[in-house]
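[agent] plan:
  1. take the single chain provided in the ticket
  2. run structure prediction with default settings
  3. attach structure tokens to the ticket
  4. add a short note for the reviewer (M.T.)
[agent] executing step 1
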Amino acid sequence: MTHANPDAPPVVIAGLPGPESNEIVDMSPRRRRDGFRRARKSMLRARWPILGLIVLFFVSFAAILGPTVSPLDPNRQNIIQRLQEPMKVDRQGRTPYLLGTDALGRDVFSRLIYGARVSLLVGLIAVCIGGTIGTSLGLVAGYFGGRIDDVIMRLADIQLAFPFILLAIMFLVVLGPGLFNLVLVLGIGQWVTYARIARAQTIAQREKEYVEAAHALGARTTSIIFQTILPNILAPLTVIASFNIASVILSEASLSFLGLGVPPTTPTWGGMLNESRDQLIAGRWWLAVFPGIAIALTVLSFNILGDWLRDFLDPRLKSIG
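[agent] step 2 finished; step 3 output follows
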């Protein structure tokens, strides 16, 4: 006769606690408080994730409150004030353009603030689309196996056989530039990563006792897949999502740099880099440096948080908390 380990945490079986699992989701208030406390201690010990959170806080603040905090209209042209250097003081002793102006006299600082909205919006929505599609297909492929698994994985292999940036350029040339098309293309292009990870995790989980117990209790297949297995494989998917946001932001900037992103009337960091190409030779460094720094800091912050999440959610490294 075997006895359950009293120290083993509970698992989720179609919304009910179950016997065994390595990946646990317990949403009780006490467990949530313990989780937040452990996360805070882990961040304070690692330090770098705190800096990443600070950077992302300011980027999110600019994206959400762009019209409120922006000093000027980002599309307002003033040819008389074109190509003003950063921190230049006018005759009244003021600094009207903190980061200078571009070739059309538009305020670079205001365009940076509005560009944060596009980058975060594209990154978050594209990851949600790709994560939802890929995780659902990976769960189905891993749980059922057989021909369904073969078809889904072969589709993934076909997509992986082509460079993603070339596929994105091809579809955007056919569909035309625009925010909706950009988000759709970047979102669909991310599903493969989630599908392969969700499939591998589902195969490892489907033979465990708590899944068999759910079968014995008469749970439906959809309930077993999405209420029993899915909560127990969310940890690696969450880590991948944090890294993918950074890669999507880079892809958006690359496509906007090529003129295939959002319309030119919408300020984006990649579009600002595109507009600065002809000015770099003349020494107008600020037109490329500031949007480049914004992209680099945002991507670096997401990558730092992704590294921390990977360690924090790894059950073999719980001692870091």
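[agent] step 4 note for reviewer: Confidence is low (pLDDT under 50) at residues 1-27.
[agent] ticket updated
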